[in-house]
Amino acid sequence: MTHAPVLPGATICFLGDGQLGKMSLMAAHQLGYKTIVWYPSDKNGNNGPAMEMATHRLTAPFYDATFDSSAAIDEVIRKADVITTEWENVPLSLIRELERRGAIVRPSSRVLEVAQSRFREKMMAGELDIPTTKTAWVPANTIVNHDWTEYLPGILKTDGQGYDGKGQYRVNTVEGFIAAHQKAAVDCVLEKLVDLAFELSVLVARNASGEISVSDVVENAHINGILDRTVWPVKDRGFTRSKLQEACDHAMKVAEHLGLEGVLCLEFFVDIEGNLLFNEMAPRPHNSFHGSIEAAHTSQFEQHIRAVCGLPLGHVKFHTPFQMQNLIGGNWEENWAPVLHDINARLHLYGKSESRPGRKMGHVTTLELNR
Ligand code: ADP
Ligand code: MG
Fold this sequence. Notes:
Blueprint: E1 11-15, H1 19-30, E2 34-38, E3 56-58, H2 70-79, E4 82-85, H3 92-100, H4 109-115, H5 118-127, E5 135-138, E6 154-158, E7 168-171, H6 174-184, E8 188-192, E9 196-206, E10 212-214, E11 218-223, E12 226-232, H7 240-258, E13 262-271, E14 276-282, H8 292-295, H9 300-309, E15 322-328, H10 332-335, E16 345-349, E17 360-367
Parallel strand pairs: 1-2, 1-4, 2-3
Antiparallel strand pairs: 5-8, 6-7, 6-8, 9-10, 9-11, 9-13, 11-12, 12-15, 13-14, 15-17, 16-17
Bound molecules: adenosine-5'-diphosphate and magnesium ion.
């Protein structure tokens, strides 16, 4: 079903209230949209960074088996012209209920269903002939008889809900794998460890008319499973250029396959033999493209808004080399103030009420203007 574009002046509802939502809301407001943020308050009644920017706020619990959120659903359907997510783990039952009641939800439940499961993502990659990591499905509470050594050393990852390295266990032996699986106590995947040379990501956007736009590819460095730094351009290692094109081709294939309406980031590994391997994807703006706010013709957040509203897409292509450094709980307090003295640095603090080790508190994009 195609719909007319959702034009500026209309209202966009965001499910989720983190920093990705906050920066998406800033782009939405710049383009003249009104916003609703729907996300349940935490147990202390605190809200996240997006909520304070919203035109309307909704803090009711999400729809689930025990809670009837029909009043909140009614309100969103009445007030919002389009509904989107800044976080792929919104309950699928809520997304499906919104769709069943005729709401325009972008990206759709079809996209979120794949993105909520590492295993479904890897299966999809297999169907599309996109090389990926060697991965096995390990359901909760049962380990079938199998020669697991072919996946070792590896990483046991929870199939859903993982982010910033959470829900991951490095395992070297079958005994270690079994112990980690017992500890996880949920459906998991076991992924063979890749001998990483470097990591890449790419952002693809598609709108309801089928227009597709793919970004430049960026290079990412992680520490303890958390993104630390992103740079563009990607360091030239001789064979890199063909890998970048491959990554873009894979991204466009996935966007078409899923009938994406929105933006989607794909993460890739490049191993020491030069193979490009799909890691995972996220159907939303992504930490590795925060540099697009200052360094690209169109930021990923504006692209998200354009894509979900059915406007012509922009170009997440970089006009200026940059590096993006995350400010992570534990050391961010010392690291942000000096940035104010650097003429080429752009500071973003998310305004989170509490800093915890490993929590993303802000980022700095440093433009290489004098190259
Ligand atoms: P998250 O959802 O937490 O981002 P990822 O699967 O992307 O989970 O893992 C986070 C990081 O951990 C990756 O970017 C990479 O640096 C490292 N990692 C994850 N899986 C592997 C693997 N199979 N081999 C080598 N490194 C990995
Ligand atoms: Mg990742």
